[in-house]
Design a protein that fits this description.
Blueprint lengths: L1 E5 L2 E6 L2 H7 L12 E2 L4 E2 L2 E2 L3 H21 L1 H4 L6 H15 L19
Antiparallel strand pairs: 1-2, 1-3, 4-5
Length: 116
Amino acid sequence: MFYIMKNSKIVFSDTNRQRLVDTLQFLPDFSENDIRETNQKIENFMFEGTPEHTVWKARQVRTVRNEKLNETDKYALPDYPNEELREKYKIYRQALRDLTKQDGFPNNVVFPEVPE
């Protein structure tokens, strides 16, 4: 992975060095000498495993989790007509809430399967 930093923050990254070099023609503040290489994964302009990345990744997981909870709210209502399905969704929704307790959170999270 190739990247360029400014003020201790990654501002550009690419797996292809030449693409980054080609981009420099539009970036007068940078030169080819600013390109660095790393074996570390870069995601959302952060090195994976840094505290900032962990906070960002946790926020991403929680956002997806919350969307899944919102999508299944109707199954949690006491007047949902299918009691068996309501019970399955109760378990599913609790598993969603427990995602943050998984050992791999936030980088290796396994979402529960949607009930049928």
